[in-house]
Specification:
Blueprint: E1 7-13, H1 26-30, H2 32-35, E2 42-43, E3 52-53, H3 63-67, E4 73-79, E5 86-89, E6 96-98, H4 119-126, H5 143-149, H6 154-163, E7 169-172, H7 179-182, H8 187-194, H9 200-206, H10 222-235, E8 240-243
Parallel strand pairs: 7-8
Antiparallel strand pairs: 1-4, 2-3, 5-6
Helix pairs in contact: 8-10
Length: about 250
């Protein structure tokens, strides 16, 4: 990171939008740090797949953001104290998650926000579907380091219990269109196999699935798949229920 007294900066390059082979490398040509002769602030050639921005050298001027013809670059200023609260990052110039919500017994917690701010990533981490790397994507920490990072917080106790299988957390996926490829059978057959709480009748009634009980999963509509995914979640026994895009 490039730090000032109060801010840290995150540079994000959208790999799907960045197209060095189809532009004039406006980002690099307009970067004041590169023009001053400092090597490595913004690295890209016409043969590159994507541009690479050094968060250490970046001064946060935002010129590259304005010059990019494909709107592929974001420079985000954050409070400096968040630097020590990084939970996960997928790679260089990519999304970065700071902090986590804390699940508590008997409480309902909602995460609201625009697309791409980390809601799904946070749920995957809490459900133990994604191991948090604390921002160290090159050399991910082990669980001892991760628990030490959360030492003294409710999350330390939560992750400890998850690792010891003292807490079962299950999650409804964000994208349900993949369900037919992973699960075969009729709605009734699948739900009956998953029913650990004797809750199938209630869930299928509440979610209006009674009329599709005999249908194969592969022929369900998008809305029916969403309700089916919620029903699978509801019939299982767990300590924490997570619903991504209900």
């Amino acid at each position: 990171f490039c730090m000032t007294d109060k801010l840290i900066r995150i540079a994000i390059v959208n790999g799907e939008r960045c197209k060095p082979k189809r532009c004039s490398l406006e980002c690099k040509r307009s970067c004041p740090v590169v023009r001053m002769g400092k090597i490595g602030c913004l690295e890209v050639t016409s043969k590159s797949k994507v541009a690479l921005i050094s968060e250490v050298l970046c001064v946060g001027c935002g010129i590259c953001v304005k010059k990019c013809p494909f709107d592929a670059i974001q420079i985000i200023n954050l409070p400096k104290e968040l630097d020590k609260e990084t939970v996960h990052r997928y790679g260089p110039n990519s999304f970065k998650l700071h902090r986590l919500p804390v699940p508590r017994p008997g409480q309902i917690l909602g995460l609201v926000g625009t697309n791409g701010i980390g809601k799904s990533t946070a749920l995957k981490v809490l459900a133990a579907k994604l191991k948090p790397n604390l921002g160290e994507w090159k050399t991910p920490p082990d669980w001892t380091e991760i628990l030490n990072h959360f030492r003294g917080s409710e999350l330390q106790n939560y992750f400890t219990r998850v690792l010891e299988d003292n807490i079962k957390a299950i999650i409804k996926p964000q994208y349900v269109d993949a369900i037919p490829r992973a699960i075969k059978g009729t709605v009734a057959d699948v739900l009956s196999r998953k029913d650990e709480r004797d809750a199938m009748d209630k869930m299928t009634t509440d979610l209006q699935l009674r009329e599709v009980l005999d249908r194969e999963i592969g022929v369900l509509s998008g809305g029916e798949l969403q309700r089916f995914a919620l029903a699978i979640l509801g019939v299982q026994e767990a300590d924490v229920y997570m619903v991504d895009e209900p």
